[in-house]
Write a structure and sequence with these properties.
Radius of gyration: 19 Å
CATH superfamily of the largest domain: Lactate dehydrogenase/glycoside hydrolase, family 4, C-terminal
Family: Belongs to the LDH/MDH superfamily. MDH type 2 family.
Number of strands: 11
EC number: 1.1.1.37
Strand content: 5-15%
CATH class of the largest domain: Alpha Beta
Strand order of the largest sheet: 3-2-1-4-5-6
Structural class: alpha/beta
Helix content: 40-55%
Keywords: NAD, Oxidoreductase
Distance between the termini: 42 Å
Bound molecules: 1,4-dihydronicotinamide adenine dinucleotide, 2-oxoglutaric acid
Protein name: malate dehydrogenase
Pfam family, one: Ldh_1_C
Shape: globular
Length: about 350
């Protein structure tokens, strides 16, 4: 991971406590070693893990815990806690990573999961509302991630909305890597790609502000073949990348998702490698770019040490981009309305 290895620990005198739900699942199996090894929060930050999954997975979760212990990670507090009781997993957590949910199967759109996962995120919002600290940072990964984060935030008013985010970093990393492959340059040379909107096939992967050492800002669309090439090939490739992996593996992306979660958490908590770097995060809209206030929308943001971020609100959006922003905003509004209809019936 970029930047974190030598970072000063966020909590020099104690471990950072991270609750992970869905901890017996496939993303967790790639994520937990990243957290335990120090590659997210730095090589001097102690880490305490509180793992949650359903009672039916108890033996798997116990096996994962044994493996973490057998990893003999110097930074990891022992014993690793695991439970099927949300209150126990979330108590005193500095960070809560919500993977636990019903996953998409081949042929399904992520929004087909709204009803099933809306119930889970309502329930977890209510529990967090009772036991979480105000400063707890929450990252929603379970799909449909934007709308699950919105549902959770409706039921968890104890945590300020700025502390609740969802994952768009996998899409951001996919785009960054695609640009590097097309331009035959290093991924680390590609800066300021952006993902806008929903973590779904309507997301808008945007290269308008991207640059490399050889391609200055404003010239990236042309360097990638122009708007028609973006429209017919590059944008759809990123929009459908999750489905492509799912069709090939018969399982959704997990290794790359874990890596993206590490990147999201590291940048959010420690700040980006360079102060001006743009990264993509799903956050509550502040009305920038005309996006409805409160909608959980992926924006390009700047991150600052200590778990702070700011939406970059001064980019200029042309008609090519505007059309994509509207499509993804409309999808999020309809997901939100459907999710609120579903969860209101549960009250
Ligand atoms: N936002 C993003 O970029 C991405 C999101 N995802 C989503 O992340 C989620 C997790 O993916 P995988 O690990 O591959 O799924 P998985 O099916 O391997 O694991 C999910 C785990 O969650 C557990 N679970 C289900 N309901 C739970 C609850 N109420 N409380 C606690 N645990 C619960 C299950 O028992 C299972 O162990 C899925 O919703 C997937 O669609 C996956 C990749 C990228
Ligand atoms: O596509 C899915 O439903 C799960 C995995 C995912 O969200 C992704 O790979 O982007």
């Amino acid at each position: 991971m970029e930047n974190s290895t030598y970072a000063a620990p966020l909590f020099p005198d104690r471990a950072i406590t991270i609750a992970v739900t869905g901890a017996a699942g496939q993303i967790a199996y790639s994520l937990l070693p990243l957290l335990a090894s120090g590659s997210v929060f730095g090589s001097r930050q102690r880490v305490a893990l509180q793992l949650l999954d359903l009672p039916v997975t108890e033996s798997v979760l116990q096996g994962v815990t044994l493996e973490l212990e057998d990893g003999a990670y110097p930074l990891l507090e022992l014993p690793v806690k695991y439970t099927s009781v949300s209150e126990e997993a979330f108590a005193n957590a500095d960070i809560v990573v919500l993977l636990g949910s019903f996953p998409r199967k081949p042929g399904m759109e992520r929004k087909d999961l709204l009803a099933k996962n809306g119930a889970i995120f309502r329930e977890q919002g209510l529990v967090l509302n009772r036991v979480a600290k105000q400063e707890t940072r929450v990252l929603v990964v379970g799909n449909p991630a934007n709308t699950n984060a919105l549902t959770l935030s409706q039921f968890c008013t104890a945590i300020p909305k700025v502390n609740i985010t969802a994952l768009a970093r996998l899409d951001h990393n996919r785009l960054r890597s695609l640009v590097a492959r097309r331009l035959s340059c290093a991924v680390s040379d590609v800066h300021d790609v952006a993902i806008w909107g929903n973590h779904s096939s309507t997301q808008y992967p945007d290269v308008s502000f991207a640059y490399t050492s050889g391609v200055p800002v404003g010239k990236m669309r042309a360097a990638l073949g122009g708007e028609s090439q973006l429209q017919s090939e590059i944008i759809p490739t990123i929009q459908k990348r999750g489905a492509e992996v799912l069709a090939l593996r018969k399982l959704s992306s997990a290794m790359s998702a874990a890596r993206a979660i590490g990147d999201h958490l590291r940048d959010w908590m420690l700040g980006t490698a360079s102060e001006n770097e743009l990264v993509s995060m799903v956050v509550a809209s502040d009305g920038s770019y005309g996006i409805e206030k409160g909608l959980m929308f992926s924006f390009p943001v700047h991150c600052y040490r200590g778990g702070r971020y700011k939406i970059e609100s001064s980019l200029s959006i042309d008609s090519f981009s505007r059309k994509y922003l509207e499509i993804t905003q409309n999808e999020l509004i309809s997901e939100r309305d459907e999710a609120m209809r579903v969860v209101s019936k549960m009250c």
